[in-house]
């Protein structure tokens, strides 16, 4: 079914369950939540990025049966590299508290944030602004507070800011809940893919996790100013709390498509390490953040990482004579170093195919 988005605007939002969109697994909707979902055609998706057509990353209802959830994650993830999860079990209060302390942090005076400011990308916990990514003269309108969480018990949180006063407590709880959700999604992926269920339990997920609070201020010229440049996430999996303000765009068939989320959903995307482990069955898809001229946008990302020394390559389960490894195994530390070099100093430049990058090494 292909509809134009006009004439049916009164229908309630239909959250597609895995069973209800099995024929294509792909849905579009117009920019308003309550607009009808549209099944996409390539023609529609080829419209300019600022058109009224938005991609709704496939919705995975985690209260469905385990089999259905597994299938929905795989179907949606294989097609887009992005899904959004609802009924995920994370209390709404924990989410609202996290948004509130994030807003409070960004409202602190510049002087109160100055001691946290650093452009040293090796510093695990720091405050930085878009200037960190200023490559080739591009400007990025973005401020970030990055909080590192080390294992086994989050000791590095002693470095987290002590102001606003509730930040440490709220962020710690939020980090543990969202990281738990990420680990559950990884277990579900294992089940769906036929990997042993503890595949992601060890070093591959126990590097320092990061909780990043992003503020994208409005810009005077959004057509010239991005919030984040096109990139793929280099980690294993990312759990993003998107804002009601749109801004995240996903590359699909060569077009930038607005990602739109339903209330209380987390947007989840696969990092490059998942692409490597699954030998390309799952793809890490390029995305970016655009700005607008009127409102600030806040988003919060939880990033699950491997340890620096963890060796990551395609899992044996996916390799046969007909399916040779498409990626080389390397430690996560080497991956980041090499990926940075190949990307001319920034992991955040327009990404070419990961396979091509590995061929150049
Ligand atoms: C990222 C990212 C998106 C957003 O930090 O890797 O893609 O909406 N963030 O902030
Ligand atoms: Ni990203």
UniProtKB/TrEMBL annotation:
Residue span, Fe2OG dioxygenase domain:
206-306
Q: Name one Pfam family in it.
A: DIOX_N
Residues of the region (Disordered) are: 1-26
Q: Where is the composition biased (Polar residues)?
A: 1-12
Q: What GO terms are given for molecular function?
A: metal ion binding; oxidoreductase activity
- Keyword check for Transferase: no
Q: Keyword annotations for this protein?
A: Iron, Metal-binding, Oxidoreductase
Kindly give the InterPro entries that the UniProt entry links to this protein: DIOX_N (IPR026992), IPNS-like_FE2OG_OXY (IPR044861), IPNS-like_sf (IPR027443), Oxoglu/Fe-dep_dioxygenase_dom (IPR005123), Plant_2OG-oxidoreductases (IPR050295)
Give the transmembrane region(s): none
Cross-referenced SUPFAM superfamilies: Clavaminate synthase-like
Family recorded in the similarity comment? Belongs to the iron/ascorbate-dependent oxidoreductase family.
Q: What is this protein called?
A: Fe2OG dioxygenase domain-containing protein
> Native species of this protein?
Eragrostis curvula
């Amino acid at each position: 079914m292909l509809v134009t988005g006009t004439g049916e605007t009164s229908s309630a939002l239909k959250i597609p369950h895995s069973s209800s969109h099995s024929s294509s697994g792909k849905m579009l909707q117009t920019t308003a939540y309550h607009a009808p979902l549209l099944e996409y055609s390539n023609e529609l998706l080829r419209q300019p990025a600022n058109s009224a057509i938005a991609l709704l990353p496939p919705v995975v209802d985690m209260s469905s049966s385990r089999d259905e959830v597994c299938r929905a994650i795989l179907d949606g993830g294989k097609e887009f590299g992005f899904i959004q999860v609802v009924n995920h079990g994370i209390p709404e209060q924990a989410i609202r508290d996290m948004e509130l302390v994030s807003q409070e942090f960004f409202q602190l005076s510049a002087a109160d944030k100055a001691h946290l400011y650093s452009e040293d990308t090796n510093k695990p916990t720091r405050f930085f602004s878009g200037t960190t990514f200023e490559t080739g003269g591009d400007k990025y309108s973005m401020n970030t507070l990055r909080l590192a969480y080390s294992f086994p018990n989050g000791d590095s949180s002693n470095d987290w800011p002590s102001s606003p006063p509730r930040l440490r407590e709220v962020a710690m709880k939020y980090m543990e809940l969202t990281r738990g959700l990420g680990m559950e999604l990884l277990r579900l992926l294992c089940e769906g893919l036929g990997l042993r269920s503890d595949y992601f339990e060890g070093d591959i997920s126990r590097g320092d996790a990061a909780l990043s609070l992003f503020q994208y201020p409005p810009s005077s010229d959004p057509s010239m100013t991005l919030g984040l440049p096109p990139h793929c996430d280099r980690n294993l999996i990312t759990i993003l709390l998107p804002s009601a303000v749109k801004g995240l765009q996903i590359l699909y068939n060569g077009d930038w498509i607005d990602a739109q989320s339903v209330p209380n959903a987390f947007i989840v995307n696969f990092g490059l390490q998942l692409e490597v482990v699954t030998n390309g069955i799952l793809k890490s898809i390029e995305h970016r953040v655009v700005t607008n001229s009127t409102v600030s946008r806040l988003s919060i990302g939880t990033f699950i990482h491997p340890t620096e020394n963890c060796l990551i390559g395609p899992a044996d389960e996916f390799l046969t004579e007909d399916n040779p490894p498409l990626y080389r195994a390397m430690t996560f530390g080497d991956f980041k170093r090499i990926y940075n070099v190949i990307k001319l100093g920034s992991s955040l430049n327009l990404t070419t195919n990961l396979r091509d990058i590995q061929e150049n090494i």
